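Case study 2.
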Amino acid sequence: FRKRLSHYLPFDLEFVPDVKNTKNLSEKEQKNLEGEAMLSRIQQGDYVVLLDDKG
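Prediction:
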């Protein structure tokens, strides 16, 4: 994706690390923590696009 899109527009590609110590958390709690980690990186005015390698 990076190679294809860089010809059309500038962008940043960021990876959010996995949540640590999830053994004692439910799936819902894990998803909430992951969501909070993602949202903490988004600033007002950012445009977010999710790209899925499976199409």
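Residues 1-55 form one domain.
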